[in-house]
Structures are given as C-alpha cells and as structure tokens.
C-alpha cells in the first residue's frame, strides 16, 4: 500500500497532525509551511521533512495531499490553491468565512481536470468523537424513534487568544472567526443525515470585555432541516466560564439524550424500549450512555493508545483513516466539499439573520450552484 505524503500548513494545529500520521500509518509528513521559518525548520529536522516559508514552493514540493491547519481566514484560499496544484486537501474548520469563498471552493472543485479529481475533506473532528458515533448508530437502529429536535453548544473562552505578544489584535481579536458552528452542528447533521434549509439567529452585542473587540459575544442559532427537524446551536468564544465544547442533546418520539454538563456529570440516555416508561406521575429515569458503547461501538473501545495523540480523544485517528481511504479510492470522502459546506453555511447566513433581528434566512444547497 502506497504511503501518502502530506504537506502541513500551519504548525499551531498542524504539529499534532504529525503524531496522528504516525499512529495511523500509511502516511508521512514530508513538507511543512509556516510563516515562522525558524520554528518550521526545527520541527522539520525532527521528522526528516522540508521546511518552507514560501507557499508556492511548498505546493511544488513532492507531496500528495495538503493539511490546511492555518488560521481560519486562510482556509478557503489555501484549499483552492492546493486543489488547483493537484493536491488532495484535508482542511481544518471552517471551510470558509464568506459565501463568496464557498462559491469559489465549489468552482475550484468543479474545474478539476477529468481523471484528476482531487479529494477534499473537512477535518471536522467532533463528528468523529466516540460519543457522536455511538449516537449515530443508535439513531440508525431507530432507538430514538423519530428524531425531531437536536441541540449543540460550543462554549470556549478564547479571550486569551485575542492579542499578539506586542498587543496587536490577532485574527480572532479582529472578529475574523465567523460563526464557528461546525463543532456543534456537524455532529447533529452526521447523526441525522440532514441538511439545514433555514436559519434564524440572534447575537449578544460585543464590547463587554474590551472596547476594541466589538464582535458579538455569542450567537444563538435556530434551524430547520430538509426533513423538518428543529435544531438549536449556541456558539460562544467569549464568555468567562468553564469550557463546554461538546454538548449535544437529542429528542425523539421514543428516546432522549443529553451530554455531560460538568462537575462529575455523565452523558445520559432514555430509551422507551428498555427503560421505565415516561409517565406524568412516575417520571422516567436516565441510564448512562456509556453502558451502550460495548454493544454499538466495540471497535472504538479497542483503539490503540496512540490513537489519542491528536489531543481530541480518538477522533482525529478515525478522521485521518477515512481521509486516507478516500485518497486511495477505497471510499468517498465522508465530509466532502458539499457536506463541509452543509456544516459551514448556516453559520455564515446566521450573521445576516442576526443583523436583521433574527429573521429566518434560507440556506442554499451548494450542490445547486
């Protein structure tokens, strides 16, 4: 089996990718690109890779695929350049920051030469969390009955990332983050197989902590899918509080689930076909979600210790395995360009909805562009 040669853009996130390559196998990092050449050269020397601070020279290197792990404002442009250079792309979230960038990504993918189609995959690692996979299999087994509601939250105090050492605002401090909803929304869409068709959003005004940082403190999105599900997502990178970066909940006609909330809490589930009935005078009781894992995700429980080297449980291990399968032509990309935009676009249109006071906005299907 051929080894896939990766080039990695951006070391803050990209450095962990080197460890995951070693854990998965059949892949190696042979080129690194970052504006900090000294740091790049140091890491390159330890893994026998080439270091670059010239982007075009990096793309011309002997690599098969590019990992776009740079700051979010560069994801779309660098992905497009890599696709045009004939490289497969594994892009960190989000796919893009604007609808115009989304349309440019679609054009780049559609203009690939016949017989030279490049694989694009959005590296939404939360979609690969063991808990999310367990919920997906429970849903596919109809244990929830008919799902009609889901929610997600990504609460992460990132104010410490607003300033450079010289006190200049970083891209995060400048509000170039967009509504970063993929960690919350992506898993919900994966579990249900749905696509958002309408979004309504409200924003809490910014400027509450530093006058110069004026972007909204949080966004609250309410969405409707093609199949009629109602979804709610809260995105908050500002509020001072303990992190809660992977909260989800599901409600169906025959089952309910809520993730852990902290302080010793555990994820929990109630299923009509095996738990006490839900009655007004004798309320049903939760069971631990983890108790169902051996039945539904036994192979996840057997992941090797090195699978956790990416820093997000085993999620990046399974993600890279799927990307490599797609590059080798063994399976389609599970989060291809269009599915990646399904995860991304509701957050972009949420900005317009919030600016208009929460009016519902139609989210287009990028497959029709």
Q: What does this molecule look like?
A:
By secondary structure, the chain is of the alpha/beta class. It is built from eleven helices and 15 strands. Strand 9 and strand 10 form a beta hairpin. The chain starts with a strand and ends in a 7-residue tail after the last strand.
Q: Return the CATH class of the largest domain.
A: Alpha Beta
Tell me roughly what share of residues is in helical segments. 25-40%
Figure out the total of helices: 11
Q: What's the order of the H and E elements?
A: EHEHEHEHEHEHEHEEEEEEEHHHHE
CATH fold category name of the largest domain: Dihydrodipicolinate Reductase, domain 2
The oligomeric status of these chains comes to single chain
Whole-number mean pLDDT = 95
Low-confidence stretches: none
Structural class of the secondary structure composition? alpha/beta
Number of domains: 2
Strand order within the widest sheet? Answer: 14-13-12-11-7-10-9-8-15
Distance between the termini: 37 Å
Radius of gyration: 21 Å
CATH H level, superfamily name of the largest domain: Dihydrodipicolinate Reductase, domain 2
Secondary-structure arrangement, i.e. CATH architecture of the largest domain = 2-Layer Sandwich
The major sheet is characterized as: 9 strands, mixed
Tally the beta strands. 15
Instruction: Estimate what percentage of residues fall within beta strands.
Output: 15-25%
Shape: globular
């Amino acid at each position: 089996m051929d080894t896939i040669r990766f080039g990695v853009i951006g070391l803050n996130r990209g450095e962990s990718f080197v460890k995951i390559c070693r854990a998965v196998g059949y892949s190696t990092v042979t080129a690194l690109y970052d504006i900090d050449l000294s740091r790049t050269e140091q890491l390159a020397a330890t893994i026998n890779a080439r270091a670059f601070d010239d982007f075009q020279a990096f793309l011309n290197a002997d690599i098969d695929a590019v990992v776009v792990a740079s700051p979010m404002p560069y994801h779309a442009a660098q992905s497009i350049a890599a696709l045009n250079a004939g490289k497969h792309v594994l892009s960190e979230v989000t796919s893009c920051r604007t609808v115009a960038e989304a349309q440019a990504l679609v054009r780049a993918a559609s203009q690939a030469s016949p017989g030279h189609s490049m694989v694009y995959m959005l590296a939404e690692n939360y979609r690969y969390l063991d808990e999310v996979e367990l919920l997906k299999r429970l849903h596919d087994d109809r244990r929830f009955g008919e799902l009609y509601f889901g929610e997600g939250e990504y609460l992460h105090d990132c104010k410490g990332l607003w300033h450079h050492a010289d006190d200049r605002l970083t891209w995060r401090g400048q509000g170039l983050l967009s509504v970063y909803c993929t960690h919350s929304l992506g898993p919900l869409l994966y579990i249900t197989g749905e696509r958002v068709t309408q979004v309504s959003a409200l924003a809490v005004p910014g400027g509450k902590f530093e006058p110069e940082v004026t972007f909204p403190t949080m966004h609250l999105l309410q969405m409707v899918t093609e199949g009629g599900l109602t979804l709610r997502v809260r995105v908050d990178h500002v509020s001072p509080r303990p992190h809660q970066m992977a909260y989800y909940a599901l409600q169906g006609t025959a089952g309910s689930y809520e993730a852990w909330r902290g302080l010793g809490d555990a994820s929990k589930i109630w299923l009509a076909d095996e738990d006490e009935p839900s009655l007004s005078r004798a309320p049903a009781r939760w069971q631990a979600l983890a108790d169902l894992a051996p039945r539904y995700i036994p192979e996840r429980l057997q992941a090797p210790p090195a699978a956790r080297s990416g820093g997000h449980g085993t999620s990046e291990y399974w993600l890279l395995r799927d990307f490599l399968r797609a590059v080798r032509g063994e399976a389609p990309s599970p989060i291809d360009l269009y599915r990646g935009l399904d995860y991304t676009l509701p957050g972009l249109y949420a900005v317009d909805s919030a600016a208009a006071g929460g009016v519902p906005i139609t989210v287009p299907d990028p497959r029709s562009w």
